[in-house]
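Dear colleagues,

For the upcoming journal club I promised to circulate an example of a predicted protein-ligand complex. I picked one with flavin-adenine dinucleotide because it came up in last month's discussion. The inputs are reproduced below in full, followed by the predicted structure.
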Amino acid sequence: MKVTEHIENAKGNTLFSFELIPPQKGKSIQDLYDNIDPLMEFKPPFIDVTTSREEYIYIDKGNGLLDKKLTRMRPGTLGICASIKHKYNVDTVPHLLCGGFTQEETEYMLVDCQYLGINNLMALRGDAMKDEQSFVPKAGGNRFAIDLVRQINDLNCGKYLHEVMDVDNKADFCIGVAGYPEKHLESPSLQSDLKRLKEKVDAGADYVVTQMFFDNAKYFNFVEKAREIGITIPIIPGIKPIAVQRHLQILPQIFRIDLPEDLIDAVDKCKNNVEIKQVGIEWAIQQSLELKAAGVPVLHYYSMGKSENIRQIASQVF
Ligand code: FAD
């Protein structure tokens, strides 16, 4: 079922969902299952699985030289989506990136999704690779998320890349896109970023999932401004619990988001990571309860592959 259908069927009740990261290649999928199992009691109607950018690794050739290789360290998004769907009978949402893929390769993935019965997708641009100053699309690839939305929407209209084909089976994908309550880091202003979001919606996006935020006022302001410019589709808040001291530095650095003073003070007072984790859980519970009371369609948690804190939050909220 589509994410938007799950939301309609919930008739105003807030749903629970979460996002997973594929394991590093060479690691077992069992660890992922062990983290999903405790969350299934909260009946997520859909689970997202991220896709990671390719990266350069350096292999020691044993002669004092290093071999530079381009590889994807966490492959398997589609396979994981299929296995979770099969094992737990839950809808899965693979994240599709512009970065690192040609349109042709993207089309193959979309065809695979159709055969697997996966009809929800998150359409994302992806970030620059670690050694790049700014995002560079692969030759023959999509430049912005909107281009990916258009490609998916073309398939929904039965239009493949090479129009010589006789299409008797149109795709029917439900398309999610990213939104940024504190604006995307490359965007000159929130208003200009919202205009870009509106363009993605006009191109066929069905729902929005937000970047993490720690101050609900940012989300409420974002939704209000989005509604003002005619974005009417569901806007799902993304929640991440703080778990370690380092999050205070790396989350603002990576995502250009602000952390509230009260949260920073509470983390600073902690003596160890156990206490910090508890502060993060309690903050996320308060955020979730307020968002739920405001009637958000879904609370979507960034689990980063670890479920224990998400389980504790969900047990207080759902
Ligand atoms: P876009 O919508 O293309 O926007 C990127 C920037 O370009 C913005 O600043 C926008 O304002 C601007 N822009 C858009 N259109 C135009 C235009 N026509 N001309 C000029 N500027 C334009 N990353 C991963 O690598 N893997 C994941 O699985 C993943 N999952 C995510 C899930 C969620 C819910 C979110 C919020 C983010 C996720 N990301 C993921 C991160 C995402 O890939 C990055 O934030 C990326 O930098 C932007 O992606 P986007 O889809 O928002 O890009």
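Two points we might discuss: The beta strands are 15-20, 46-49, 55-60, 66-71, 91-97, 120-124, 174-179, 207-212, 235-239, 298-302. Residues 273-293 form the longest helix (21 residues).

See you all on Thursday,
B. R.
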